[in-house]
Amino acid sequence: MRTKKDILVPKSQSDLDKLKLEVSNEIGVKVPHGSPTGKWGHIPAEKCGDVGGNMVKKMVESFERGLVK
């Protein structure tokens, strides 16, 4: 059975990580570079939500541009 945290398209993980870094740099969130687990435990939930929200916004914009083409 699929859980909530399962990755639907495993090949997309590296692209999502790149997008997360790009967005976090744009909005000024310091990313835990070199963290062995890649966890964002020291970053407040509000900032993580800002990064996630902006990631979704960029993905929707990209999808909409693809629909127009």
Automatic annotation (TrEMBL):
Pfam families: SASP (PF00269)
Signal sequence bounds: none
Family matches, as InterPro entries: SASP_alpha/beta-type, SASP_DNA-binding, SASP_sf_alpha/beta
BP GO terms, sorted: DNA topological change; sporulation resulting in formation of a cellular spore
UniProt entry keywords in alphabetical sequence: Sporulation
Record GO terms (molecular function): double-stranded DNA binding
UniProt cross-references to PANTHER family, sorted A to Z: SMALL, ACID-SOLUBLE SPORE PROTEIN A
Known function: SASP are bound to spore DNA. They are double-stranded DNA-binding proteins that cause DNA to change to an a-like conformation. They protect the DNA backbone from chemical and enzymatic cleavage and are thus involved in dormant spore's high resistance to UV light.
Name of protein: Small, acid-soluble spore protein C2
Gene name as annotated: sspC2_5
